[in-house]
Amino acid sequence: MKKTRFVIIVILAGLSFGSIISAQPRPAAVIEKMKNFNWMVGDWQGEAWYIGRDQLKTTLLQKEHLVSRVEGTIITMEGRGFDIPDAGEEAKIQFEAFGILTYDQQNSKFVMRAYRGGNYIDSDFSSNPDGSYSWGMEGEWGKIRYTLKHTEDDKWNEKGEYSRDGVSWFQNFEMTLTRQ
Prior knowledge:
The protein is an alpha+beta fold. The chain has one domain (27-179): Calycin beta-barrel core domain (Lipocalin). Helix content is 16%, strand content 53%. The protein has two helices and eleven strands, in the order ααβββββββββββ. It has helices at 2-23, 28-34, and strands at 42-51, 57-69, 74-82, 93-104, 109-116, 119-124, 126-127, 133-139, 142-150, 155-163, 170-179. Strands 6-5-4-3-2-1-11-10-9-8-7 form an eleven-stranded antiparallel sheet.
């Protein structure tokens, strides 16, 4: 009797779970929105530079690996910046980050979660009138914004800017990558 009851409970739970899954909205709208970023999927490489807290400019070899996943509803982004070694030396990773980009249907906007150094940020990923996209973060130290653009010659250009007050901005990062 207990065994029969257990089997019935398991079957009902399975049917309930199946109906919950089938009740989930189909991702067609998200897939359609994410097509805006199909150009990004693949491997990219090129030069990048940033200005550190010490105000020194550092040049890197930047590599980005982007993959469309979960039926085209998200794009994962893995970025690594390598120092440019002297002849005979091996390049070392100086920068590493991971991000997930998707479309938030409930709020009708693109969103990104980016991870770096044990921390993460959530950011809107907004389109600009010139066809570029912007994302950023802010804290008690100020604001950082990034603007990325797919150029006519199939390059990925991204610039970063910093502001203490949200009014005056100065560029502190740029990368221009070529599809590999």
